[in-house]
Amino acid sequence: xxxxxxxxxxxxxxxxxxxxxxxxxxxxxxxxxxxxxxxxxxxxxxxxxxxxxxxxxxxxxxxxxxxxxxxxxxxxxxxxxxxxxxxxxxxxxxxxxxxxxxxxxxxxxxxxxxxxxxxxxxxxxxxxxxxxxxxxxxxxxxxxxxxxxxxxxxxxxxxxxxxxxxxxxxxxxxxxxxxxxxxxxxxxxxxxxxxxxxxxxxxxxxxxxxxxxxxxxxxxxxxxxx
DNA sequence: AAGTGTCTCAACCGCAGCCGC
DNA sequence: CGCGGCTGCGGTTGAGACACT
Length: 226
Description:
There is one protein chain. This protein has 226 residues and is mainly alpha-helical. The chain folds into two domains: 13-57 and 179-225, no CATH class; 66-167. It has 14 helices and no strands. The protein has helices at residues 13-26, 31-38, 44-55, 66-79, 83-88, 95-120, 137-148, 152-167, 170-176, 181-188, 193-198, 203-206, 210-218, 222-225. Mean pLDDT is 60; it is low at 117-226.
């Protein structure tokens, strides 16, 4: 009877399914409520994190593209460790993902880059927390453009194009990966996420009994289990 | 093949800001 | 206006995967 004991650690497939279902019903802004009514014994924070970083259907998976990497570099130079803000400029990427990416890939590059720089006494902005401590922004941007021959205009063009490509066939892309059948089905039927979130308004009417929720999700289990 | 080191990424924690009462 | 609850953000951790010896 330890029902009140909060669960921690990795999420199970079943928990994922339950969470998706409840987010579907109540929207993605009422985490505490979802945590309570879902019976997951997780905190609202935990539910939100799981959704945002893993279950959200718009998420891209896999390696960062060179364009994304450049954008991360440029935005980090501009904003510092404002990961969520940076993430908003990279559709399908989460703040957590970018944060991790920065720590691993970029830091690694920084170390490599640092070696020759240490001889010149120049400080790499990779090592900084961003604009406050880094070299002047102009210098950094110039550094990128000189080094890569790739301007921010080019980057934004790429992003615009990739967004166009990405957003429209998103369902297809997403379905190619081990993705959520349910949401793909929803999207195929032109149900946008905005409209799903608006379902919140009718939440009280739409509350499904738990058993019904599960059976609904048996339909789309494969994407979660792989 | 086994042991060890390194890397990756999901998840947790603490804090700050926002909002309703 | 102050308080309490909730959400979101950034930093950190740790388990599992992978690479190397």
